[in-house]
Specification:
Layout (H helix, E strand, L loop, with lengths): L1 E6 L19 H12 L3 E6 L4 H8 L3 E4 L12 H9 L8 H8 L1 H10 L7 E4 L13 E5 L13 E2 L2 H14 L4 E5 L5 E8 L5 E2 L3 E3 L14 H6 L10 E2 L6 H17 L4 E9 L5 E7 L13 H8 L4 H16 L4
Parallel strand pairs: 1-2, 1-3
Antiparallel strand pairs: 4-7, 5-6, 5-7, 8-9, 8-10, 8-12, 10-11, 12-13
The chain binds adenosine-5'-triphosphate and magnesium ion.
């Protein structure tokens, strides 16, 4: 088969503390996906830039493996899938509506609430000064539509009105987008990788993020610093447990909430869902990642490949499995 591989390549001169391109993939990841697919298919790399539409139109791959995070704005992740729908070229993963809803965390939470899937109470702030009624402290303040912990730093967890105002104005001015102010969920954190479609969706072994391993006096959140600065390939943080140690009742509840969220947002093929327990120990959905991070180096601590490894799937198995699931969904013979 001719498989298009659509990606956004991270510029190499980016400094790690500058999070502008944090969601884009590096050469190593794109090469690893390409090599995984090349075992069985002819791979056509297509960069997700303004020329992508013409390339898809001329090259017409049988299917596209989509890992493009998109150029900019709150619709960036759905740009490529929308083009492919227009050209009637099938692709892996979720469609434009799901990608758009999940990138806007408040819209995703509204859909989850409709379906009775637990998620923390929240308020969206578009301007300051703001006279909204916030949930009680402590609160988390984050950008409305970012990923890879962009804009979520150690001081995003706020305990006073002054800290809250400071963090809101930082999001509005630095990220030029609304701030999502959410009740802080104080319990354990998990991330759940799902593979498949509909009622058949498979939940891979659950990953727990254990904050005791973070430097002392640091808030127990998986912040940008924790993800990219304190945890490096040279010195990986031992903060993950996979499979997570849970009672079977907790595991069941986490799996059920994750599957319900996957179905509520109409995710397809794969998705990684972040979960945190509230003060009564109930799993709440933080957010859904229908374009999950897939760093190939195990020391880079990328959670989807980690969960797949625990389930016995190598990196190449995982990538090919996603392609197979997408082919089955659209009725393409591999
Ligand atoms: N309501 C909350 N209560 C407690 N912790 C939270 C809350 N919201 C976010 N966090 C912490 O901040 C981290 C990042 O938040 P979130 O998952 O929303 O951001 P993201 O940038 O979209 O993440 P990703 O890298 O998974 O794309 C979470 O993993 C969690 O540790
Ligand atoms: Mg997250």
């Amino acid at each position: 088969m001719h498989v298009g591989l659509c990606f956004n390549l991270k510029p190499t001169n980016e400094s790690i503390s500058d999070d502008f391109y944090a969601e884009w993939d590096d050469e190593e990841t794109i090469a690893a996906v390409r090599s995984a697919l090349s075992g069985k298919h002819r791979v056509i790399p297509i960069e997700a830039n303004e020329d992508a539409f013409e390339k898809f139109r001329q090259l017409r791959p049988d299917i596209v493996f989509n890992m493009a995070e998109g150029l900019s704005g709150s619709s960036r992740e759905l740009q490529i899938p929308a083009m492919l729908e227009m050209l009637r070229i099938p692709y892996t993963g979720s469609g434009p509506i799901t990608l758009g809803l999940c990138l806007d965390k408040s819209l995703a939470k509204e859909v989850l609430s409709y379906h009775g899937v637990p998620t923390a109470p929240f308020v969206v702030v578009r301007d300051l000064p703001e006279k909204k009624k916030f949930p009680p402290f402590p609160l988390i303040v984050k950008p409305l539509y970012e990923g890879s912990s962009k804009g979520i730093r150690n001081n995003s967890l706020v305990r006073t009105t002054a800290q809250l105002q400071e963090q809101i104005s930082a999001i509005l001015t630095e990220y030029h987008q609304p701030a999502l102010v959410e009740k802080y969920l104080a319990g354990r954190e998990f991330t759940v990788a799902l593979l498949g479609n509909g009622a058949e969706v498979q939940v891979l072994p659950i990953v727990e993020i254990q904050f005791e391993q973070l430097p002392a006096n640091i808030n127990p959140i998986y912040s940008f610093e924790a993800k990219w600065i304190w945890d490096t390939v040279e010195k990986p943080l031992e903060i993950f447990a996979c499979p997570a140690k849970t009672s079977s009742s907790l595991e069941k509840r986490i799996r059920a909430v994750s599957q319900a969220a996957f179905l509520a947002l109409r995710c397809r093929d794969w998705c990684r869902i972040d979960i945190r327990l509230d003060e009564s120990g109930e799993p709440n959905v933080l957010e859904l990642n229908p374009l999950p991070g897939i760093l190939p180096n195990p020391d880079a601590n990328s959670c989807f490949p980690k969960a797949a490894r625990t389930a016995g799937l190598s990196y190449a198995d995982l990538i090919n499995r996603v392609l197979e699931i997408a082919c089955q969904r659209v009725g393409l013979n591999l």
